[in-house]
Amino acid sequence: MAETSKVIAKKRDRAGKGGARSSRREGLIPAVIYGDKQAPVMIAVEPKSVEREMHKEGFFNHTIKIEVDGTIIDALPRDVQVDPVTDKPLHLDFLRVGPDSIISVQVPVHFKNEGASPGIKRGGVLNIVMHEITVRTKATSIPEYFEVDLTGLEIGHSVHLSALKVPEGVRTVTRDKDPTVASIAAPTVVREAAAETATADGAAPAAGAAPAAGAAPAAGAAAAGAAPAAGAKAPAPAKK
C-alpha cells in the first residue's frame, strides 16, 4: 500500500480568481477538494507541506491527509497547475476518498536485478513499454509500485502483465488482454554496424582512385576532340 502524507491547509473565504489571487498574496497555494458525493471545499495549502510531496515518486497515487482547520480529509492529488517560468504550483485539485471509494490510479513499475540478466550482460537493452500501470481499487489498497525481476532474461525475452504480482482487491486496466511490460532488445550497436557496412559497400570511390570505365572526365579535363576553351588558339591544320 502507498504511504500516506499530511498537508496543512485552511478554508478559503472566496472562490474564483479573486480568491485564488488573495491566497497567493498570503503565500499560500489555492486548491479544491471534491468528490465522494460531497460539496467541494475551497482551501489554501501551505507550500512547504505539499511541495516536498510533489517531488516524490507516485505523488498522484499516494493518499494524502489534508488537515483543514483541524479537520482531517483523506484525498488523492488529481491535478497540479504550475507556473511555466518558476515551476511553482499555482493550483491543486484533490479527490476526496472514503473507505469504500473505488478509484483509478497509475502505479509505477520498478525493475530489479538487471545485472542478473544474461541478455543485458551480452549487450542487450532493457526496452520499457509500460512505466506505469493503471489500476482500479480502494484508496487503502493502492500498491506502492509493481516490481519486475529481470533475473535470467535473455535477448528477445519479454515480460507480460500477467507475470506481475497484483494484490488482492486490485484490478489492472489495459486495452490489451496481456500487454508487454518490458523486453530485452538486441544490441543497437549490431544494427548500427550493419548499417555502416551497407553504406560503405555502396559508397563512392575514394579520392585519387581511378574513375570507372566510361565515367565522365573530371571537371576541367579536356576531352578528346573537344572544342578549345574560350580565347584559346585553334590548333594549326596538319600539313599535306
Give the helices and strands, then pairings.
Layout: E1 5-11, H1 16-25, E2 29-35, E3 38-45, H2 47-54, E4 64-68, E5 71-82, E6 89-96, E7 102-112, H3 118-121, E8 125-128, E9 132-138, E10 146-149, E11 158-160, E12 171-172, E13 180-185, H4 188-201
Question: Care to describe what's here?
Answer:
The chain is an alpha+beta fold. About 15% of the residues lie in helices and about 35% in strands. Strand 4 and strand 5 (about 70-80) form a beta hairpin. The N and C termini lie far apart (about 110 Å). Mean pLDDT is about 80; it is low at about 205-230.
Summarize this structure as a short list of keywords or feature phrases.
240 residues; alpha+beta; four-stranded mixed beta sheet; 15% helix
